[in-house]
Write a structure and sequence with these properties.
This protein is mainly alpha-helical. Helix content is 68%, strand content 5%. Strands 1-2 form a two-stranded antiparallel sheet. A hairpin with a 2-residue loop joins β1 and β2. The longest helix has 27 residues.
Length: 161
Amino acid sequence: MWINEVMDFFEWLLPYSASWFGGAVFAMVVFGLLLHLKAPRRGRKRLSLVQHFTIILVCIILFIGGHSLFVHESDGGRVLGGFIYQDAVEKFLLVMPDSTTDEVISAFGGWTEPEAVWTLGSLIAIRVFSALLVGTLMGSLLVYVDRVPKIHHLLERIFKG
C-alpha cells in the first residue's frame, strides 16, 4: 500500500523520531521568517523566488551529503549515526584499522544501540543538524505553497478569522 511506502520514505529521511519534532518547530520558525522577509517593506527588497530556490537547493545538497555519511542501514534497520566514536571503538579501530562501518557497529551492540558506537554529543549534533535542514526545507516549501493565491487567501482566512 502507498501509505507504507510514504512512511518508509519519512523513516529513511529522518530515522530518529525526535528529530521530526525539532524539524517541525524549526519549519514554522523558517516559515514565519521567510514570510516576514517576503513582505515588501520600505527600503528593502522582498525575498525572490531565486533566493527561495537557492535555500531549498542548499538544504537538499547538505541533507543528501549528510544523510549518506550518517544514516546507516542493515537488515532493515536504520540508524542515524554520529561522527565521533566512543573510546572503546577507537581502540578497536587502532587494532583493526581496515574495518568497515558495518563491522564496527556489529562488534559494538549492532544497529539497535548507536550510543554504544558514537558519542552522545556527536549523535545529538547530527540529529539536530538533520532536523534543522529538514525544517528549513519544509519551511521554504511552505512559503512556496503560500505564493499560490487560493492557498494564501485560505491561510489568511484561517489565521485572521
